Amino acid sequence: MKQKKINKKVFVVRSLGEKESDLNYWLSRTAAERISAIEMMRIINYGSDAATGRLQRIFEVAELASS
User: Fold this and answer.
1) CB 44 within 8 A of CB 6
2) How much is the pLDDT for 8?
3) Which of 4, 49, 57, 61 lies at a 20 to 30 A Cα distance from 43?
4) Residue 37 contacts by C-beta under 8 Å, 6 or more apart in sequence?
5) What distance in Å separates the CA atoms of residue 22 and residue 25, rounded to the nearest whole number?
6) pTM score
7) For 45-64, what is each residue's pLDDT tens digit?
8) Are 22 and 29 in contact (CB under 8 A)?
């Protein structure tokens, strides 16, 4: 996956009474662009290696001792 950079210089101030919705923006984007944005937010929140950062699964076969 291609690494994307976040532009941290953008800053927008809106009043609380402003009714502008982000819904119209996201509806104007293609499905691929929306999924790409979700993936970028996932990486921001959980890191790029979140899928492999979980607990490791170990499978071990133990042989019974015959008595």
Assistant:
1) yes
2) 79
3) 57
4) 29
5) 5
6) 0.51
7) 877 765 556 666 777 888 88
8) no
At residue 14, the pLDDT reads 78
Residue with tokens 């104007």: 28
* Amino acid at the residue 7: N
- Which residue matches tokens 């009043």? 15
| H runs (alpha helix) in the chain | 23-28, 31-46
Closest listed residue to residue 14, CA positions, set 25, 6, 22: 22
* Per-residue confidence band for 28, with pLDDT thresholds at 50, 70 and 90: very high
Are the beta carbons of 54 and 62 closer than 8 angstroms? no
For residue 36, what are its two tokens? 């790409």
Cβ atoms 3, 11 nearer than 8 A: no
Please say whether the beta carbons of 12 and 20 come within 8 A: no
